[in-house]
Design brief:
60 residues, mainly alpha, DUF3950
């Protein structure tokens, strides 16, 4: 018997989906600068920058 695949077809290997909330005003500011298409990359880069400021080298 094969093990059940717990990830859906849209999930990617090596990553995990997280659902977070943004205040409406903050989200509007972000989207006005980066647009909807670059949102994920922009947020990830912000998290990496925060890690660097804390003296932690982010993993790729």
């Amino acid at each position: 018997m094969q093990g059940k695949n717990l990830k859906s077809k849209t999930d990617r290997s090596g990553s995990t989906r997280k659902i977070i909330r943004f205040e409406d005003a903050l989200l509007a500011q972000i989207e006005s600068v980066v647009g909807r298409g670059n949102f994920s990359a922009w947020v990830k880069e912000g998290c990496r920058e925060k890690l660097r400021r804390l003296g932690i080298e982010p993993k790729s």
